[in-house]
Amino acid sequence: MNALLVPYTRIVAALSTTLAESVMLLFVRVSLAGIFWRSGRTKVDEGSLLSVSDTAKFLFEEEYSGVPLPSEFAAYLATYSEHLFPILLVIGLFTRLSALALLGMTMVIQIFVYPEAWWSVHMIWVALALVLIARGGGKLGVDALLTRSK
Prior knowledge:
By secondary structure, this protein is an all-alpha fold. The protein has one domain (20-147). It contains 7 helices and no strands. The model has no long low-confidence stretch (mean pLDDT 95).
């Protein structure tokens, strides 16, 4: 084997372990969760846990008016989704479902709110969600505990 391929092969083998993949998937879960959690926190009244702010309702009436849902319903749905699904991602519970939900939210934002943001933002969110949908959350999450064969 070529002398340059030996170190490369060792690195690939180390990065291909279940533990390495699980750490990387945890990072992807936390990264995607962080994006939506921070967005969700901008939609609630300061100091409250989940009280949707008047500002968020106004944004859905005006700036996000292209979303094909009643604006107040959309404000509540987005706010609650941006809190629930990130929590589930971080703990690794229903990872694929949570990533699918956030992928759906991303596509709604892309199509109806900020269609110019594909290359700068949304493509990255989609990539993170697709990794989790395809691979799951890895061994460092509740899903792995629930599906472990006994």
